[in-house]
């Protein structure tokens, strides 16, 4: 048995051994991956806000709550399944299952109950189209990404990114009861954003993934190919993000902002590609990773602002 395997076995045994203490509320909150959940909730809200038609505020709040619970449930099941590799990677060593603060079986039960609860409430209170999309999202993240793709292919982030891209479609379906091309575009923006976002992270966390045996692109294909793929996906993302303006889903405010934000994203991707393995390579990767989070937040914030501006203009026009 290699040193890495021995370390993983030892750490996993510790994670599955007797609890170090009574699980706290904070431990269960951590199990839900609140940082990931916040982005999912935000993009889901944007889909709901942009959708044509109307929804009662209480039902809208229930829809967003169900999206949040479903996302958290997926995170809990992900931590249950990935507890062996989490025990080897430095950025996940403090997760509650790894530290023995939550029993793995309790985490699985917690995530499973929340999954079923979120889908049922969405279906009964809102509509079954949104519930079906929520169930698809949870199932895709757990079974397709976590249990299959993550450990088997460097395309794990590309295909698995679909799970994080569904929330705007769920929010849209909560209002309209269906799917439209406009909601698919919102899905596509997140889907195309995911690879350069995570590959930028993996460039400076490469050793972490290699230790855990996760076939991220830089581990399998090398850093030069990862930098090239980041640039390619960024070149595809930038014009795609302008599409809501072209389709009329958003106006000029969004159009101008998305072009500027896309240009900055391309600048970061180009910088990573141009620097190569130089001394500033890790800094460039860290900067793009940080900016990619800000980018997605600002893109969807612009959609809200543009929609609000449009609604305000229509109201003012009706009064005059």
Shape: flat
Percent helix range: over 70%
The CATH class of the largest domain, by name, is: Mainly Alpha
CATH level 3 topology of the largest domain: Tetracycline Repressor, domain 2
Structure report:
The chain folds into two domains: 29-177, UbiA prenyltransferase (Tetracycline Repressor, domain 2), CATH 1.10.357.140; 180-314, Four Helix Bundle (Hemerythrin (Met), subunit A) (Up-down Bundle), CATH 1.20.120. The protein has helices spanning 3-16, 25-31, 34-50, 57-81, 83-86, 104-126, 128-149, 156-160, 162-165, 167-176, 181-204, 206-212, 217-220, 223-240, 243-247, 252-275, 281-319. The protein has 320 residues and is mostly helical.
Please specify the SSE layout and strand pairing:
Layout lengths: L2 H14 L8 H7 L2 H17 L6 H25 L1 H4 L17 H23 L1 H22 L6 H5 L1 H4 L1 H10 L4 H24 L1 H7 L4 H4 L2 H18 L2 H5 L4 H24 L5 H39 L1
What are the salient characteristics of this protein?
flat, 320 residues, disordered N terminus, mainly alpha, Four Helix Bundle (Hemerythrin (Met), subunit A), 79% helix, 2 domains, Tetracycline Repressor, domain 2
């Amino acid at each position: 048995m290699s040193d890495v395997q021995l370390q993983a076995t030892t750490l996993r045994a510790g994670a599955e051994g007797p609890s170090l203490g009574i699980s706290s509320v904070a431990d269960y909150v951590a199990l839900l991956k609140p940082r990931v959940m916040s982005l999912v909730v935000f993009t889901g809200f944007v889909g709901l806000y942009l959708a044509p038609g109307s929804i009662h505020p209480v039902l809208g709040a229930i829809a967003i709550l169900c999206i949040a619970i479903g996302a958290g449930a997926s995170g809990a099941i992900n931590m249950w399944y990935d507890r062996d590799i989490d025990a080897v990677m430095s950025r996940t060593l403090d997760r509650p299952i790894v530290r023995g603060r939550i029993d793995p079986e309790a985490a699985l039960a917690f995530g499973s109950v929340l999954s079923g609860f979120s889908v049922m409430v969405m279906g009964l209170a809102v509509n079954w189209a949104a519930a079906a999309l929520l169930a698809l999202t949870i199932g895709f993240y757990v079974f397709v990404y976590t249990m299959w793709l993550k450990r088997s292919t460097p395309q794990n982030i590309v295909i698995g990114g679909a799970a994080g891209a569904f929330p705007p479609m769920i929010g849209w379906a909560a209002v309209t009861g269906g799917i439209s091309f406009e909601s698919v575009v919102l899905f596509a923006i997140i889907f195309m954003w995911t690879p350069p976002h995570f590959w930028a992270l993996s460039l400076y966390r490469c050793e972490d993934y290699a230790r855990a045996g996760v076939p991220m692109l830089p581990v399998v294909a090398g850093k030069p190919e990862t930098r090239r793929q980041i640039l390619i996906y960024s070149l595809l993302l930038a014009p795609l993000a302008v599409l809501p303006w072209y389709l009329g889903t958003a106006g000029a405010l969004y159009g101008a902002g998305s072009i500027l934000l896309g240009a900055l994203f391309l600048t970061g991707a180009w910088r990573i590609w141009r620097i190569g393995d130089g001394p500033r390579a890790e800094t460039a990767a860290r900067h793009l990773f940080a900016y990619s989070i800000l980018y997605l937040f600002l893109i969807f914030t612009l959609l809200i602002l543009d929609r609000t501006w449009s609604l305000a203009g229509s109201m003012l026009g009706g009064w005059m």
